[in-house]
Specification:
144 residues; mainly beta; Jelly Rolls; six-stranded antiparallel sheet; 47% strand
Length: 144
């Protein structure tokens, strides 16, 4: 079984978080989004190993109430011996550069599945895609 844990250090308590998950893989995947201090789980998504590698996706949102910088995402793929991933993150700011209003994170995964010939690995980094975004100001603050 291969497992990877992604950390989202820029997400703060009280932020509104949305995520998008998609697989193009026949393998089984379990994705869990939680804070790594209290263990509170905000989302769990499972894609069963049905041999179908058609696009399969999920999207949702939640209020993050855990400690600042402690949101994580754990990816489990029982059939894979090794998960690799890309990583991109950015800040959400107005053109002036201030203030920071949110953060975005994206990762593309490769599960190192074997081609139909049974020997070669097919490397395409499209087996699982995760995009997570957090906003600091989802609602207007009457005190601002």
């Amino acid at each position: 079984m291969a497992t990877k844990t992604l950390s989202f250090p820029g997400i703060k308590s009280g932020w509104y978080v949305s995520y998008f998950l998609q697989t193009l893989a026949g393998y089984d995947y379990t994705v869990t989004i939680q804070d790594n201090v209290t263990g509170n789980t905000y989302a769990t998504w499972k894609k069963q190993n049905d041999g179908d590698d058609s696009p399969y996706s999920n999207t949702n949102s939640f209020w993050y109430t855990g400690p600042d910088g402690k949101l994580i995402c754990t990816v489990d793929c029982p059939e894979s011996s090794r998960l690799d991933n890309t990583w991109a993150e950015s800040i959400i700011t107005p053109s002036s550069g201030n203030p920071t209003l949110g953060r975005t994170y994206c990762a593309a995964f490769e599960d190192n599945g074997v081609k139909n010939n049974g020997t070669d690995y097919r490397i395409e980094y499209n087996n699982l895609f995760i995009c997570l975004v957090g906003w600091s100001h989802y609602r207007d603050d009457p005190n601002e």
